[in-house]
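Retry 2 of 3 after timeout on previous attempt. Resubmitting structure tokens to design endpoint.
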């Protein structure tokens, strides 16, 4: 005579009245151990995802991946810079040349006629070892100190690509809320020169902010916050087309209109002029 659910209930009651046999006890303990182990393994995996190396790799993947980044040997960018001063805003053309591993040149032209200064040109060059600045307002000078070290550590296309080989250490200090975004905060420490903080979006793994404190002659110690946005894909790599920099001295916004990769660059572009 079938008993269906009643029989099952009877068996459960009978099992509850009698202690489990030794074999059952071993099975129960084993199942508990497996369950605990799986929880611990899950915790280890979650913790591992929070390491600096993992955050760096996810960021590199988000901007195009190691393979695409490794193909880049040079970059030329052109756009407009707008400088905010107590006397008003001044805009002009900007060009930036990069050559792997760390050569860079930045050329800025501003029209300051509204304040009686005329046209201003700033031409900063770094040949991988030494830097030189030509400034029609403040005079020409060799680039030294933290500014020079910052250029030496500005590896193209990103210092994060081969940071260990270049003697840079990175520490993940945790998460911070920046506006409505959760961000991983990486402290980047080169062998020499100023350290910096990079803020990596916890969802997209795009870098959207950098903060660096450096001694910039003749200004002195200056903390500069740089916000990156409007990332667009160029040759398989995402490049920020809007850069907003703020400090106690001045604020400026760069809007990029052209990006070109892997063109042959005249290396004298980065050198101090002979004259």
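Retry 2 succeeded. Sequence:
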């Amino acid at each position: 005579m079938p008993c269906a659910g009643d029989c099952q209930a009877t068996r459960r009651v009978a099992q509850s009245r009698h202690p489990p046999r030794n074999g059952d006890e071993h099975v129960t303990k084993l199942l508990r151990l497996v369950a605990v182990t799986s929880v611990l393994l899950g915790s280890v995996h979650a913790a591992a995802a929070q390491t600096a190396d993992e955050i760096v790799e996810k960021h590199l993947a988000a901007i195009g991946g190691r393979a695409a980044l490794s193909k880049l040997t040079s970059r030329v960018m052109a756009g407009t810079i707008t400088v905010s001063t107590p006397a008003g805003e001044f805009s002009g053309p900007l060009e930036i040349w990069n050559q792997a591993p760390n050569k860079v040149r930045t050329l800025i032209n501003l029209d300051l006629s509204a304040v009686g200064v005329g046209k201003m040109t700033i031409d900063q060059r770094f040949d991988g070892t030494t830097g030189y600045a030509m400034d029609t307002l403040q005079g020409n000078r060799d680039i030294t100190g933290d500014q020079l070290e910052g250029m030496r550590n500005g590896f193209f296309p990103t210092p994060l690509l081969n940071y260990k080989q270049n003697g840079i250490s990175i520490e993940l200090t945790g998460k911070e809320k920046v506006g409505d975004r959760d961000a991983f905060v990486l402290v980047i420490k080169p062998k020499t020169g100023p350290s910096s903080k990079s803020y990596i979006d916890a969802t997209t793994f795009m870098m959207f902010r950098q903060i660096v404190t450096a001694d910039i002659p003749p200004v002195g110690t200056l903390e500069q916050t740089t916000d990156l946005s409007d990332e667009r894909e160029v040759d398989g790599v995402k490049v920020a087309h809007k850069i907003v920099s703020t400090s106690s001295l001045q604020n400026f916004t760069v809007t990029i209109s052209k990006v070109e990769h892997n063109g042959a660059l005249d290396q004298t572009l980065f050198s101090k002029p002979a004259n």
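Attempt log closed. Residues 1-20, 26-49 have pLDDT under 50 and may be disordered.
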